[in-house]
Write a structure and sequence with these properties.
By secondary structure, the chain is an alpha+beta fold. The protein contains five helices and eleven strands; from the N terminus they run αββαββββαβαββββα. It has helices at residues 2-15, 43-48, 95-108, 129-132, 199-219, and strands spanning 24-31, 34-42, 52-57, 63-70, 78-83, 89-91, 118-122, 153-155, 162-169, 178-180, 182-192. The longest helix is centred in the C-terminal third of the chain and has 21 residues, at 199-219.
Length: 220
Amino acid sequence: MLLAVAVLLLGFNGQAMASFSNGDLIQVVYSGTTEIVTDEGSLATLLAGGTTLNFTSPLANASVAYFDYITTGGSEGTVWTSGNSGGQTAKFGSATAFQTAYNNVTGLYWPSTSSPAQASGLTTNPNSYSTQMNGSGSNVGQMAGFIPDGSAETSLVNNGPVTQTLYDYIPTPTRGASQSGSIVATINTGNVSATPVPPSILLMGSGLLGLAGIGRKRTA
């Protein structure tokens, strides 16, 4: 009976796995050789609640960046990147490189069993954010060349908080084209928080304890 309950609950947990889907705002923090990627949920849903977004970082004294992508909106889809409040300009000729990097990074961390979806890896992994978006350190904050000035990420000095601006772009395939981003939100990143435990795991634990108690009563 205990085994059956465990399998059932783990099945529910598997159905709840998040997949770093297009349209979800992705947070990346990295420090040293470790990076942690968190799917903060649907950007459309987040913005429906207001244009000030508040998140925490699962790593201390880390670098932090946010990005999102959907295939609709234009011939090259729609892209969102974090930046500073002074404005940001994207190089549309690098939109394809961004899309490839986005797919590789989200593919690496798919799926996740935590809620919100969160996974960690090594910055040296060929498909990590640090390798794909930052060019293994040669193009930090450039989102695979899409943001030439490297303003897409900032440092969480002393764990933050830090404030970034989220910009929206609808790239065109025009060679050499570039455009200033449209501001869609302000993102505040606060202090380090503990990685959440999936609710299904907590439920499984309480269920197993309850069944154990029933078994003891029957034995008595």
